Amino acid sequence: MTDSNDTKNSKETLIIQQKVYDMIMYAYPAIEQFPKSQKFSLAQDMKKCLDAIMRYIIAANKKYTKKTTLQELDIENEALKIYIRMAFELGYLPPKKYEIWSGMAVEVGKMIGGWIKAARDNQPLPGIDKQPDSGERASGQVAIGDDETFTCSGCGATIAKVVKEYSEKNMGRILCRKCQNKFRRGELGNGP
């Protein structure tokens, strides 16, 4: 049986995932203090948002193409911020809890924005980096859970193992797809 600290103790938990976990652990007791009349309406909507945010973070971390998942994640976080404000304005959240919880949601929103920008620009994740594990990796290799990613020798972007294997086999170098195209056009040097 696993204990509830497994998320905290995993070798490489996304920082944003830990922030959302902390926000959920703060939010659930706050939601439990809502009036009974709100248990199956606003409180339920807020819990669904929190759960969806965590699921989208996990999904985005596992997927190669993240754009749609990250957009859905951003939408859920924005909805949660509105629900938090509604709960405060209706008097269900005291000012201090509102301040803390909305601050957490804003911080997560900034991290999501950075993740979206990094995914759009095909760059490493700023502020969403993995918490380091104690194991050493080969040069250019970064562990992400059970998956492995590698660094493009052309631009430094993070690439998946399948992209790395293809480029090594066909170009003799570790290159992202963008740099592979430049290599084929002869713009990267040592091209055809």
What is the highest CATH level, the class of the largest domain?
A: Mainly Alpha
How many E strands? 3
> Strands of the largest sheet, in order across it?
1-2-3
Question: Number of helix segments?
Answer: 7
Radius of gyration: 21 Å
Largest sheet: 3 strands, antiparallel
* Uncertain spans: 1-12, 126-147
Overall tally of domains: 2
CA-based shape: elongated
Mean pLDDT reading: 79
Query: What would the CATH topology of the largest domain be?
Result: de novo design (two linked rop proteins)
Helix/sheet category: mainly alpha
The CATH homology group name of the largest domain: 23S rRNA-intervening sequence
The CATH architecture of the largest domain comes to: Up-down Bundle
Helix-strand string: HHHHHEEEHH
Distance between termini? 56 Å
Overview of this protein structure:
The protein has 192 residues and is mostly helical. It has two domains: 6-121, de novo design (two linked rop proteins); 141-185, no CATH class. It has helices spanning 6-9, 15-32, 42-62, 67-89, 95-121, 161-171, 177-185, and strands at 141-144, 147-151, 158-160. A hairpin with a 2-residue loop joins strand 1 and strand 2.
